[in-house]
């Protein structure tokens, strides 16, 4: 048997490296001798630096962390790591340091658990008080805030955990049963109101067919008064029913006026009339290719004016709004097209119409295809980077789609005009 080579923390024997016993841990084998015993001991002494750096790193993390309690498991794991670590050095101060961390963190966790227990009991009480409030919708929002606080609050001592969780969940379950019953009752009331309003609409239609028109007009006016008393429906449903009711009334009074010989002219909102006039004016000016720059400036001014006037109108006509937006888009696209063409064809308006159209078709076709290609690339990139759900990205895509669509509509118009000229 060879004479063992050793240092302060371990030794070599029979081609193996051992660590000395320390504290309550017996000596144990940690490796093999490969070249020489001296090199083996030096290797494991050097390797001990890794253990030192890991303990140091963990200590720094604990000092810097706000939620220090979460590091207790890491400290316990580090203790096991050191006890089983294959290296030669003084492990005692490292284990002492970890024991200090363990004691400190356990005390901190215990204090936090006491604090968390107080917080969770208070949250249960808040939840009970909120669930007793009459406004179910507002209570739902408040309870969701309480639940978020509950989730964010750390754990409590295990002996209280199950009881508290069950108590909190019981309050939440009871509230949502109450909430479901509330909305079932509300939906029932809404259904009843819908039936009442639909009944009024049917009654007006029936009264229009009645022989005694004078008696019917009195009844229709009574129905109009009763209609105003039925409130609390969802806005979209209310709007749909109101349109049907108004249509039924218009049909009734058209017949009434016809029978009575009354020449009735429906009142037109002057604001709507102004918006209609603005739209029609721009539609006419689009044809004035020579003055398109001035028309584009007018469209910009009308956009500002439209926004100001339309905000004052309660039920804006969507078809008129879309018509106005479309003509503005066409004017802006036409203005841009002619500006681009002017760089190469300054005298475009002096050329024959057929030649003008050919130039405009070529340029517009090029721009539409180029922009469509750029849009497809942008969509592909947005999908790859998972940005398709982003509102700004979607808005940009929709805006670009609309611009391309307007270019293609104008392009179709140019081609149709060219065909007419060539075939005339």
Please, could you describe this protein's structure?
- It comes from Aquirufa esocilacus.
- Pfam families: DUF349.
- InterPro entries: DUF349.
- This is DUF349 domain-containing protein.
- The structure is a single chain.
- The protein is mostly helical.
- Helices cover 75% and strands 3% of the residues.
- It contains 12 helices and 3 strands.
- The chain has a 3-stranded antiparallel sheet, covered by helices on one side.
- Strand 1 (10-13) and strand 2 (16-19) form a beta hairpin.
- Helix 10 crosses helix 11.
- The mean pLDDT is 90.
Blueprint (SSEs and pairs):
Blueprint: E1 10-13, E2 16-19, E3 28-32, H1 37-64, H2 72-83, H3 92-131, H4 136-152, H5 158-209, H6 213-229, H7 235-260, H8 270-285, H9 292-310, H10 318-342, H11 353-384, H12 391-423
Antiparallel strand pairs: 1-2, 2-3
Helix pairs in contact: 1-2, 2-3, 3-4, 3-5, 4-5, 5-6, 5-7, 8-9, 8-10, 9-10, 10-11, 10-12, 11-12
Features:
mainly alpha, 12 helices, 3 strands, 3% strand, DUF349, DUF349 domain-containing protein
Quaternary organization: single chain
Q: Which whole number gives the mean pLDDT?
A: 90
What is the helical fraction, as a range of percent? Answer: over 70%
What distance lies between the first and last C-alpha atoms, to the nearest angstrom? 117 Å
Described by the principal axes of the CA atoms, the overall outline is flat
Strand content: under 5%
Number of H- or I-type helical stretches = 12
Question: Quick one: how many beta strands?
Answer: 3
Strand order of the largest sheet: 1-2-3
Low-confidence spans: pLDDT under 50, at least 5 residues? none
Q: What's the gyration radius in Å?
A: 41 Å
Order of helices and strands: EEEHHHHHHHHHHHH
The SS-based structural class is mainly alpha
* Major sheet summary line: 3 strands, antiparallel
InterPro entries: DUF349 (IPR007139)
Pfam families: DUF349
Protein name: DUF349 domain-containing protein
């Amino acid at each position: 048997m060879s004479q063992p080579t050793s240092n302060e923390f371990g030794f070599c024997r029979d081609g193996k490296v051992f660590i000395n016993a320390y504290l309550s841990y017996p000596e144990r084998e940690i490796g093999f001798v490969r070249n020489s015993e001296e090199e083996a001991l030096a290797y494991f002494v050097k390797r001990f630096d890794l253990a030192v750096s890991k303990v140091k790193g963990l200590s720094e993390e604990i000092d810097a962390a706000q939620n220090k309690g979460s590091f207790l498991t890491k400290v316990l794991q580090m203790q096991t790591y050191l006890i089983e670590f294959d290296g030669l050095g003084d492990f005692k101060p490292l284990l002492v340091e970890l024991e200090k961390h363990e004691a400190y963190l356990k005390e901190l966790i215990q204090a936090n658990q006491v604090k968390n227990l107080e917080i969770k009991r208070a949250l249960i009480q808040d939840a009970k008080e909120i669930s007793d409030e009459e406004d179910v919708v507002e209570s739902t929002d408040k309870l969701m805030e309480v639940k978020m606080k509950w989730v964010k609050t750390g754990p409590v001592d295990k002996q209280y955990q199950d009881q508290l969780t069950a108590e909190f969940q019981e309050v939440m379950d009871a509230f949502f049963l109450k909430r479901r019953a509330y909305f079932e009752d509300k939906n029932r009331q809404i259904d009843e109101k819908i039936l009442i309003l639909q009944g009024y609409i049917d009654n007006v239609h029936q009264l229009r067919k009645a022989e005694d028109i004078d008696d019917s007009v009195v009844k229709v006016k009574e129905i109009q008064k009763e209609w105003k008393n039925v409130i609390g429906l969802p806005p979209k449903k209310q709007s749909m029913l109101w349109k049907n009711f108004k249509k039924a009334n218009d049909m009734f009074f058209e017949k009434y006026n016809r029978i009575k010989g009354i020449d009735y002219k429906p009142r037109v909102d002057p604001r709507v009339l102004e918006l209609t006039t603005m739209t029609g004016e721009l539609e006419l000016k689009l044809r004035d290719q020579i003055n398109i720059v001035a028309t584009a400036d007018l469209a910009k001014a009308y956009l500002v004016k439209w926004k100001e006037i339309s905000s004052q109108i309660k039920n804006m006509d969507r078809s008129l709004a879309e018509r106005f937006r479309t003509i503005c888009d066409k004017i802006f696209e036409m203005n841009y097209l002619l500006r681009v063409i002017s760089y190469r064809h300054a005298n475009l308006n002096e050329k024959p119409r057929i030649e003008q159209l050919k130039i405009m078709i070529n340029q517009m076709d090029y721009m539409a295809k180029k922009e469509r290609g750029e849009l497809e690339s942008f969509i592909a990139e947005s999908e790859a980077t998972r940005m398709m759900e982003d509102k700004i990205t979607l808005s940009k895509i929709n805006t670009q789609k609309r611009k391309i669509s307007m270019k293609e509509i104008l392009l179709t118009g140019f081609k149709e005009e060219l065909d007419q000229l060539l075939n005339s």
